[in-house]
């Protein structure tokens, strides 16, 4: 662990940020990494600052729970929703422009990222530089997928798609055919404190002098985690879009990514069940609906003006509403003397097409009301333009 100089040695120094949740724009990652103020001077060793027992937990609570009030402690969610949404949307636009794809996932267990980073509480945490939220770097996602591919006997294909392993002896210097983006949260994130309790601390510190045995005292070590049920988005894109096997390779990589997140896990402590993710079906359905709506909107914008207006009146998806609109708006407009003849003909043809597609039974054997309407439409179509 690198050296961290304690801050705020004097009691009168107070920036008012002890509970940064009260400051909505505080970058909690910067706060957590740089502003630890729980240090105490050891009496028997002047000049040595240490974190007393319980101070590590209290420091972690500054990013996991809100300060106590009349209702007790409330769980804190880190990150600014609007900034997170903006960052995710920017990434989505970039990935879409490169013919890439997204996978919405949700933590199925606690997730630990950046545990090996240097920090005064001994266990670090990976904070996004600008969002102040936990995230998983794209390099870590790529490494996890590579490990899964190697485990499942697909090392040669992984070598091609992901590039050679950086530390492999004699590996050529080249990039892979696919890009892995940082895994970002899709909203504010709930953090939780967890505790590991190594029973053989002296042995780990000096195996030669301290053989492992049951007389060692267990030492609880707190560390920060992402709670279960938090939504994240993973993304990949081809480095050179339009390749011959792009669709096939995309399917392979998505399969590897899903399986790796399910069985291997992401981040630290995966051997004991941390870092498992599952597909976020609800978010996937939301994305699918939004894409369909966006595509429908683009298609409507390409339609002729009259048809675009009819679609807004339910032409394609609400027969009852469009029938009412036909009676109140389109038939009178079709027959109005102020309506240009070309427009009258166009309206009439669209109405005939609607009957044939959405009311075919009434087109073949119309009831008295529809028979009159169809006759009015035919009367316009029979006019000379």
Spatial extent as radius of gyration: 31 Å
Largest sheet: 5 strands, antiparallel
Average pLDDT metric: 84
Low-confidence stretches: 8-17
Shape: elongated
Q: Roughly how much helix do the residues carry, as a percent range?
A: 40-55%
Instruction: Name the structural class.
Output: alpha+beta
**Termini Cα gap:** 86 Å
Instruction: Estimate nothing, just give the exact number of structural domains.
Output: 2
Number of strands: 10
How much beta, percentage-wise? 5-15%
Oligomeric organization of the protein chains: single chain
Order of helices and strands: HEEHEHEHHEEEHEEHEHHHHHH
Tally of separate helices: 13
Architecture overview:
- With 385 residues, the protein is an alpha+beta fold.
- It has 13 helices and ten strands.
- It has helices at 28-34, 55-64, 81-97, 138-151, 155-162, 201-205, 246-264, 281-301, 305-312, 319-335, 341-358, 360-364, 368-381, and strands at residues 39-41, 49-51, 77-78, 101-107, 178-180, 184-185, 189-196, 221-226, 231-238, 277-279.
- Helix 4 (138-151) runs antiparallel to helix 5, helix 4 (138-151) crosses helix 7 and helix 11 (341-358) runs antiparallel to helix 13.
